[in-house]
Design goal:
Layout lengths: L1 H28 L13 H19 L3 H19 L2 H16 L3 H13 L8 E2 L5 E2 L2 H6 L1
Helix pairs in contact: 2-3, 4-5
């Protein structure tokens, strides 16, 4: 019983230390807000991602040649669709040019790395107890 109270006290102390570090870092360094939404990321893009995800799950459950061919075709269509988002790319290139002209080097290199890496979607797929593949976030959390 005494060990539990000591453990709780230690956890509370570490929690206080963690919160103090966070607040002091926020005050001294400031907050660098991440970009949450990209202009080119729309419903059409999400549909292509979902279609690719379903094809990948189908191939994972049944790796026949027909499913491999289907997955490759859907990947090809999705990558073609993603490359056709020219308006976003043109605006991004103009932004990089202005950052270069005004000697804003940090934003220039940040933009270049975003531009070269592109969007890298994350596909989280796990197996449940029966061996079936689960891809939705609620199912993964439940697992």
């Amino acid at each position: 019983m005494e060990n539990l109270s000591d453990c709780n006290d230690i956890n509370r102390a570490w929690e206080n230390i963690r919160e103090n570090i966070k607040t002091s870092a926020k005050e001294s360094l400031g907050l660098d807000e991440l970009k949450q939404h990209k202009l080119w990321f729309d419903e059409e893009y999400l549909g292509a991602l979902d279609q690719r995800k379903q094809a990948k799950m189908q191939w994972g459950q049944d790796p026949r040649q027909s499913n491999v061919d289907n997955l490759n075709n859907i990947r090809r269509e999705a990558s073609r669709h993603f490359k056709n988002k020219k308006d976003y790319l043109k605006a991004k290139i103009e932004e990089l040019e202005t950052n270069c002209k005004i000697k804003n080097i940090r934003n220039l290199y940040r933009g270049i790395s975003d531009f070269t890496k592109g969007y890298q979607s994350r596909t989280n797929i796990v197996k449940d107890e029966k061996g079936d593949l689960v891809a939705d976030s609620h199912g993964i959390l439940a697992r």
